[in-house]
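Morning - 4'-deoxy-4'-aminopyridoxal-5'-phosphate inputs below, output right after.
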Amino acid sequence: MTGIDDLPIRDELRGKSPYGAPQLDVPVRLNTNENPYPLPEPLIERITERVREAARELNRYPDREAVELRTELARYLTRTGGYEVAPANVWAANGSNEIIQQLLQAFGGPGRTALGFEPSYSMHALIARGTGTGWISGLRNADFTIDVEAATAEIAARRPDVVFICSPNNPTGTAVDAGTVLALYEAAQAAKADTAGALVVIDEAYVEFSHRPSLLPLIEGRPNLVLSRTMSKAFGAAGLRLGYLAADPAVVDAVQLVRLPYHLSAVTQATALAALEHTDTLLGYVDELKAERDRLVEELCAIGYEVTDSDANFVQFGRFEDSHSAWQAILDHGVLVRDNGVPGWLRVTAGTPAENDAFLDAVRAIKKETP
Ligand code: PMP
């Protein structure tokens, strides 16, 4: 049988596995940071209407610039982000993974490097690899915060072209404060002062669940700062595949050099526009999930687990001598959580109250079995 390595594949892809959490058929799935609430019925009706309209013109290519969608995303960001952005500041793609890919295609690539502070969202490193960008793994403190002094020193020494700051960070839930971002931004620009500086990408996929406001206002006067967002989490629309960025309009012009023509289908644009009409209802679910996240933190501590402070819709808990066998033991109780490979820790996504109860029962039972 032919294997991947028998093909004339790029050397850096040999022996590698694709990204992916196990998709197992178990009663309670709390492993991929999805929103547990299905879209409300009136929104499903509105999606149907909007998609029906779009279908009448599917013989034509979609709006390549997605102007109406970017206008509505700019309105949402302005309303919730504490800073006024225009459609020219916003760009949209098929999930924030594609946003990150377009950024690395435009600002990374062969001969260039990107740096992230790990453990963090593993796709940053994987997309770097896919785009031929060298990856530099910066470290975090033992409590998963970023050590500003060590980080700025590392940036000065390694001179990356792109710096990723994930806030709130996946898988730890840790938020990064504005002061840290500004220090890293300045360090990244100073390190590359002989060129046009370095791009700093703040991945805010989970920011709607945070106790802190968005870092959006920081893009003012900083053309090399980009905010990446998604409708997969707060909008409960992971299946839609809609991510977006906010930045200086020049960054939007730059990603247009690498985006595929008509990358965002008319059906996707219509669906996202329908969802944005229902923002208030969807953000109501976010409030419920934040309360459930806080309950998970409290109860996990009460049971005797260590918990990392979380600003996201998930909680990192431990510590386990062998996190993989703890993951399996929880699965044996019918609950799927995530083993992100952070030694000693597992991650659980906040689900519905009933799902969270099932999870808490499982970890209580495990604590009894192996105290
Ligand atoms: N950034 C972070 C930090 C994530 O955790 C995820 C999804 N797990 C993404 C980006 C990508 O999400 P999507 O492509 O669905 O927008």
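Note: The chain has eleven helices and twelve strands.

O.
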